[in-house]
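Aggregate trends can hide what the representation actually does to any particular protein. The sequence in question and its structure tokens are set out directly beneath this paragraph.
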Amino acid sequence: MTKDTTVDPELSVLQERESRRQAVARSAPHAIEVTGLTKRFGAVTAVDDLSFTVDYGRIVGFLGQNGAGKTTTLRVLLGLAAASGGTATIDGQAYGALDDPLSAVGAVLDGGMLHPGRTGRNHVRTLAAAAGIADARVDEVIAMVGLTDVAGRRAGKYSLGMRQRLGLAAALLGDPRILVLDEPANGLDPQGIRWLRDFLRSMAAHGKAVLVSSHVLAEIAQTVDEVVVISKGRSVAQSSMAGLLAGRHGGVRVCGPDVARLRGLLEADGATVAGDDELVVTDRTGEQIGRLIAANDIVISELTPISASLEDVFFELTDSEAAPS
């Protein structure tokens, strides 16, 4: 009996794609690298000498106020706009030079475009057919984003959050190693935001790189590994979340029966103190205050550092008073 050695063509293509993906991930120093990027629209400079990187296995938050240049940067990165100067590369190449862009990067900008008369499944199926991707993958990505139960419903009846999920499903069709998402939490309810956080963490845990812009700073703080903050088209920070918040604190809170006496001692020492029954000391560490308490036999019930939030640091870095978008 002759053994059948026929190779499934579709399996062969998938294996070749995976082999290429792993080779690229090993050879490329950064999944995304933006270097000296400048983009002008006439006399207006939207992005000004911007540089940052995104590595595999990391989630990077991309933050800035309205008009800071975030979406323009993403459009240049994805080949939707031409740079006036500098470079924006994916795996070391411009988007237009990628051999297999669908397996390199999946993107969601502005929630994606859809035909309101098509069902969610048919919307994704149409995109898959245009890219030569099998229908089986369509059902996989729809399940991944939690739309299986409503996939037969017309997309025009979808809520904003559902359209966001549908756009993400389309971005996942080629099983990309990099995700670029512009405001993906827009329209999601709290349960959806929690789902998105877990989903992005899962992607990073599987070695994928994620660049995500968002105006939901509290959620970004719980989701990302690093942040890139831009203001007026220029980078003002790129750091890990821990590194960004390190050394920045909102002071120390002190409560207890002897705080009035403690306040007098602190002010005599030149400290800045606010409050009466509950003190907030903004220019002394907990250790410094603790030593003063011990040396003077002061009774307290609470000595707690007040940590700075990402929102506090964002406003400090961008010198703004309104939330980013």
User: Anything to note?
Assistant: Residues 17 and 103 are 8 Å apart (CA to CA). Confidence is low (pLDDT under 50) at residues 1-11, 321-325. The first helix runs from residue 9 to 27. The two ends are 67 Å apart (CA to CA).
